[in-house]
Amino acid sequence: MVKVGFIGLGLMGKPMARNILKKGFSLAVYNRSRAPVEELASMGAAPCSSPAEVAQRSEVLITMLPDEPQVAEVLTGVFEGMRSGLVLVDMSTVSPMFSRQMAAAARSRGGDMLDAPVSGSTMAAEQGNLTIMVGGSRKTFEETLPVLQAMGKNIFYMGESGAGSFAKLCNQIAVAVNLLGVCEMLLLASKAGLNLSQVVEVVSTGAGGSWQLANLGPRMISRDFNPGFKVKHLRKDLRIIREISEKLGLPLQAVALVSELIKALDEKGHGEEGTQALIKLVETLASHQISNA
Fold this sequence. Notes:
Blueprint: E1 3-7, H1 13-22, E2 26-30, H2 34-41, E3 46-47, H3 51-57, E4 60-63, H4 68-81, E5 87-90, H5 96-108, E6 112-115, E7 118-119, H6 122-127, E8 130-135, H7 138-149, E9 152-159, H8 163-191, H9 196-204, H10 211-222, H11 231-248, H12 253-270, H13 278-286
Parallel strand pairs: 1-2, 1-4, 2-3, 4-5, 5-6, 8-9
Antiparallel strand pairs: 7-8
């Protein structure tokens, strides 16, 4: 069985690592905060004191981190302990250009790297039902597939290095724009005096149905803003999308609008809340708080 390493045991990373253990892989783990390391160690994982140590213990090493600076910092340590043949799998949401740079650095050290960001909630991470979009060598992808299957149900090879990261950015455009649509739909329904839960049920059965509506609509109605995906992380993703769209000369008007709204929401102190908290800003702008009729 392949020796797996995992760095980044946050909301998504910890359940993903737990599923790797459940599938019988040996697992070495590292995280800045020690509590999740100790939790996984109690389940059989090997706790490590540095990224370099994880690299030394692993044949496949997964990173699941918030942003490019953290990935770059961790990979600097990984490269120190890297042996020839090590496969790095970065499952963070980062720029495709950054993914390509890190893959080139890994190859220059005798290893390889896949960019494999995920789509799905913390519940999907816990259940092992994530969607995983992979860029890099097809051969490396096929060799690493059993590890990816421990974490995801829908796994797609998208192309060479950076293709997985590009696919994730496409996903985030649909997520963010749809999120705003759900907020505005509930705002109109509330103003019209409709029962919001019924509206969510009705619209979900037709062409307007979506994951955002079915999962986050009820949370907006019940004022449940616990994070499955944090506002501050969506802000980061939208920043990357806008930077890429500028380089490609693409006028993404809806992305620009949602990006500014999410940024404002983060600046108002809601960065640690779930993205469904966007309803708060929409309500403020409309001077109307949604309520079930």
